[in-house]
Amino acid sequence: MSQLSQKEQWASKIGFILAAAGSAIGLGAIWKFPYVAGTSGGGAFFLVFLIFTLLLGYPLLIGEFVIGRHTQSDAISAYKKLAPHTLWHVTGWIGMIACFILLSFYSVVGGWIILYLFRAVSGELGGLSQVQYGELFGQLISDPFQTLLAQFIFILLTIIVVAKGIQQGIEKASKLMMPALFLLFLLLVFRSMTLDGAIEGLKFLFVPDFSKLTSEAVLYALGQAFFTLSLGVSVMVTYSSYLNKEQSLPKSAISIVVMNAFVVVLAGLAIFPAIFSFGMEPNAGPTLVFAVLPVVFNHIPFGSLFFIAFLILFLFAALTSAFSMIEIIVASVAKNDAKKRQSATWLIGILIFIVGIPSCLSFGVLADFQVFNRTIFDIADFTVSNVLMPLGALLISLFVSLKIAKDTLFDELRQGSTISKLFFDIWFFLIRYVAPIAILIVFLDVLGFLDFLK
Question: Is residue 350 part of a domain?
């Protein structure tokens, strides 16, 4: 278990915050959240999500930061260091396996974005109806050659950045991509807000209608509060292991939570006013981005340019998350050896691509291959989202509160910060008692044990 050298630390505070925020701000915030909010009452769902994020996601994020910075080690070694001669390091293995599987199918969606971006730039996406866009999307994802090539390009971009290391790779890319993402989002929000009838979209997003908030939506918001912040897979343990002691963990964590919530709001502001302006329904489901939004942009002056901008920011968000997924594995294999990092990144990236091929083909040649009515893509998604991530989050919350001494936790949180004893006591209570119970509820829900509530 080697200590990380100074050169393998983040070069700046903002570099770490942008990289960690980039990890959290992925397809879930821009793609999944709007359509789930669209089917779950809009503003009511958003409000519940924010409450859960602050009370549960934020404390757990700090917990992962404590493990990583205190040990200055990769995900597996960190748990071994804090709890030697125990099986707690399995938590790190769960995170690595989850990220490996996650990136194998996440890269498939990343490939779809690349294909759409190519078509948008070449002018092939203009002037179609919503039905035609739906048919185009179906044809595109079922084409084995195009989707595999695009998936490989997405993985290749991820490998190239991560192979360059923390400062020269992930931090540099994040410093470019994250500000660009926010600027593009603000541009889209401004355009969306100036459309006739946009006020209805604002009402949908910000005026809670609790009559539409089902128990299923509340449970989903609870799960999203954890998983939209990249929690449960020790990614944040790995990223925080490159931190120095001068950085405030509570401040860094709240910055990431706020940025993530801000992007969720921006996604809603960019999408819902435009949808309501054109009399469409906000509950289009997963095809919202690929089949509904192109129609909206078709009706806007310079809409093709705005849609290209949206796809670029969508790609940036997907890539910054992909960086963190592969980094947790690379860090555990390379052990801070620069030469090993390059070869390890390429080897792991190629393996992830190969493992992801069946998921990529799940919408075409392997569409009929199903287990329990689930395609290979769906099985991979279910395994990570509904089993490995909740299990990892539960183990991390228990590990922080049971295996690390309270004095050690308090001292680590005070490094670079001026937190009060009251703040620490509230945080410790939330991560020791509230978070594990909440995660268990999510776990029971996704495994079907709470179906009677729905």
Answer: yes
* Beta carbons within 8 Å of 220's beta carbon, 6+ residues apart: 36, 40
Task: Tell me which amino acid residue 285 is.
Answer: G
In the chain, the number of structural domains is 1
Residues whose CB is less than 8 angstroms from the CB of residue 139 and which lie 6 or more positions away in sequence, other chains included:
none
- Greater model confidence, 78 or 301: 78
Give domain status of residue 404, yes or no: yes
26 three-class SS: coil
**Tokens standing for residue 427:** 């945080």
Number of C-beta neighbours around residue 23 at 10 A? 27
Q: Are 450 and 219 in contact (CB under 8 A)?
A: yes
Do 140 and 115 meet the contact criterion of CB atoms below 8 Å apart? yes
| Residue 1 is assigned to a structural domain of this protein | no
Q: What is the C-alpha separation between 285 and 304, in angstroms, rounded?
A: 22
- The helix (H) or strand (E) run that includes residue 369 is none
Q: What is the pTM of this model?
A: 0.89
> Residue 234: enclosing H or E segment and its boundaries?
none
| 302 burial level (CB within 10 Å; 0-12, 13-18, 19+) | exposed
Q: What is the DSSP string of 137-167?
A: HHHHHT-HHHHHHHHHHHHHHHHHHHHT-II
For residues 147 and 153, what is the distance between their CA atoms, to the nearest angstrom? Answer: 10
Distance CA 109, CA 381 (A): 12
34 contacts 268 by C-beta, under 8 angstroms = yes
121-151 per-position pLDDT tens digit:
888 877 777 778 888 888 988 999 999 999 9
Task: Please give the single-letter amino acid code of residue 385.
Answer: S
**3-class DSSP assignment, residue 374:** strand
28-62 burial, b at 16+ Cβ within 10 Å, e below that, comes to bbbbbbbbbbbbbbbbbbbbbbbebbbebbbbbbb
Which structural domain range is residue 236 located in? 6-453
For residue 184 the two structure tokens come to 């593009």
Contact 211, 43 (CB under 8 A): no
Domain CATH code at residue 53: 1.20.1740
Residue 205: inside a domain, yes or no?
A: yes
pLDDT one-digit tens code per residue, 368-400: 888 888 899 989 988 887 788 888 999 999 999
